[in-house]
Write a structure and sequence with these properties.
The chain is an alpha/beta fold. The strands form 3 sheets. It has a 6-stranded parallel sheet. A 3-stranded antiparallel sheet has the order 7-8-9, covered by helices on one side. It is elongated and about 85 Å long.
């Protein structure tokens, strides 16, 4: 095993909730030493246990999602309303290579922790910020979650619904984890430049831009055409072989055969409908588009004749592109996910041994296991301050003991 890619890189994380902390966790997975700064009581996300989130019949004592996004870090608890605490934090940052934050710009400036102030003293510092709406424009200082900036405001929420249905609800952390990957990419590029030129820079990622990028296929077409992307109607799909169908037991099966002419004969054979293979209404992709309502109804009737389990067994190994629509409870036991190392085990001092999602990157010469727990709140506070050169009286003042 070689040295970790970011061995020796020090990161100070001034962040809460998901996106920026998730980026910090990935940097820790790459071998960086990541010091997470929290308020003395700990951020709300740390305390959101499964029971509080509506998972019944569980006494799991930790917040699994907080643990996943803060694994492998150290913990520094400071009340930044105290001048001595802010001064102490600046001393800690003086020994860092990277600052990762999602604090709003006016708060950073108020505490003297903004990029301009910190980099004026240390031009080699890399300052990576995650915001809702970016650093310019009328909403630059507005607070946001991925629900608003990434999901609702980009058009994502409006597109993902049936024509007569309400807008689709976003699940927690979806946009945040996409933004985290973007932020890590920027930090790695900035470290590469600093290694070459000796100068740091600012790295900026925002949830709004990330949402437009993830939705880029639709957004690019909307920009070029000046038109709203067409909604998907499963009863009249433009390509009935790219559509979802209900099975006999009320479950769903998803066909994703974008090149429909290529797969049409094999699909007809697989579902036992050789009788429609030569039907002139469905002879090619254009004909199937023109007669989409009839073909969708035919396929819906066919797939409704068997349970999802029956179809899974029947279609297994055939040259088709499809998937069962899994529940999350089912998906975590997927043999393919297990085989490819999607999940990892954490040995937690309080919660015991449990599974979580592993880092989504594999390196052949560095294990990316993601198996370390998040740190107890404030576990490294005094050591971190001493390492930054603070004396005992300064530490006492920073922690409000003086």
């Amino acid at each position: 095993m070689t040295t970790a890619p970011l061995d020796g890189v020090r990161v100070v994380e001034l962040a809460s909730y998901v996106a920026a902390p998730a980026a910090g966790a990935l940097l820790a997975d790459f071998g960086a030493e990541v010091m997470k700064v929290e308020v003395p009581g700990g951020e709300i996300y740390r305390h959101s246990t499964p029971r509080r989130l509506g998972y019944p019949d569980t006494d799991f004592p930790e917040a699994p999602h907080y643990q996943m996004d803060n694994r492998g870090k150290r913990s520094l608890a400071l009340d930044l309303k105290r001048p001595a605490a802010r001064e102490a934090l600046v001393r800690v940052i003086e020994g860092a290579d990277v600052v990762v934050t999602n604090m709003l710009s006016h708060r950073l400036a108020k505490y003297g922790l903004d990029a301009a102030t910190l980099r004026a003293k240390r031009p080699e510092l890399i300052f990576a910020s995650l915001t809702g709406y970016g650093n310019e424009g009328p909403d630059a200082t507005s607070p946001a979650f991925d629900y608003t900036a990434y999901w609702s405001r980009t058009g994502f929420m409006d597109l993902l619904r049936d024509p007569e249905g309400a807008p689709a609800y976003l699940r927690p952390g979806v946009g945040d984890h996409a933004a985290a990957l973007a932020l890590v990419s920027g930090v790695l590029a900035a470290l590469r430049v600093r290694d070459r030129d000796g100068v740091g820079q600012e790295v900026s990622v925002n949830l709004l831009h990330t949402g437009f990028y993830i939705l880029g296929n639709d957004v690019s077409c909307a920009l070029a055409s000046g038109r709203q992307p067409p909604a998907h109607d499963r009863h009249r799909a433009r390509n009935p072989l790219w559509n979802h169908y209900e099975t006999k037991d009320g479950r769903w099966l998803f066909l994703v055969m974008i090149e429909s002419d290529r797969y049409w004969p094999a699909l007809c054979e697989a579902i036992g409908r050789e009788d429609v293979r030569a039907d002139a209404r469905f002879a090619d992709a254009v004909a199937r588009y023109r007669n989409a309502e009839a073909l969708c109804a035919l396929l819906a009737e066919t797939f409704a004749s068997r349970t999802l389990a029956d179809w899974e067994q029947h279609l297994a190994g055939r040259p088709l592109i499809w998937s069962p629509v899994r529940t999350v409870a089912e998906a975590v036991d997927d043999p393919q996910a297990r085989a490819t190392g999607v999940f990892t085990e954490v040995d937690h001092p309080v919660a015991g041994r449990y599974e979580t999602v592993a880092p989504p990157v594999r390196l052949s010469s560095h294990a990316m296991r993601g198996e370390r727990p998040a740190p107890p709140l404030g576990a490294d506070t005094e050591d971190a301050l001493r390492d930054a050169g603070l004396g005992e009286e300064e530490i006492a003042a920073a922690l409000g003991r003086a």
